[in-house]
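Researcher: Sit down with what I've pasted below and flag anything odd:
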Amino acid sequence: MKAYRRVIVVVLCFLSISVFAQKNELGAWYMYFGNNKISDRFNFHNEIQYRNFDAGTDLEQLLIRTGIGYDLTENNNNVLVGYGFVLSKPYINGEKSENIEHRLFQQYITKQKFGRVFLQHRYRLEERFLQDDFRMRFRYLLGINIPINNKEMLPKTWYASAYNEIFLHFNSPVFDRNRVYGAVGFVINKNMRIEAGYMNQIQENKNRGQIQIGFYNNIPFTKN
């Protein structure tokens, strides 16, 4: 129970920080990620991200994404095709607006392990159908997880997490944005973990900070 109390304390700390987001222009993202096996090689990806300009009362973006993936090798080298629905509510000249985007995407994820260091490379191609435009974008993410109190990502393990992701347009300007993220995570059991961290995004020569809280669910849909 002590480990769960620590998780609650960490999450509450990040939530308390996000309460002051309105004063500091610090956003808050609350995220759910599901990656559930439906057979030995196939998996069902599902996620919801609720992104806010502040602690949670001013919606910036709602993102819902799903897809079907296939492992080229056992539990690794996953190729996936999917669809995303994006509702954005940005401020334009001080007024709230609303934009809807439908997004197709294809991605490839490969994982590596060096000692107790877990690496992930994600390559993603997106076809973005906006209300009055069509765009294509490439994304590359390099992620790292390092267990702290165990050598492996076992249940009741605390770990450090970080990633860098770059977004590139197929047209001009090529550079879209870059995200740098750092967090502390806790492995609840073999199929669930939680993370709380901070992400800085560079876009149009502007820096924007985001508090992030994410829950990861890998419960398989198969008996095996």
About this structure: The chain has one domain: 2-217. Residues 2-217 form a domain with the Porin fold (CATH 2.40.160). The chain is about 10% helix and 65% strand. The two ends are 29 Å apart (CA to CA).
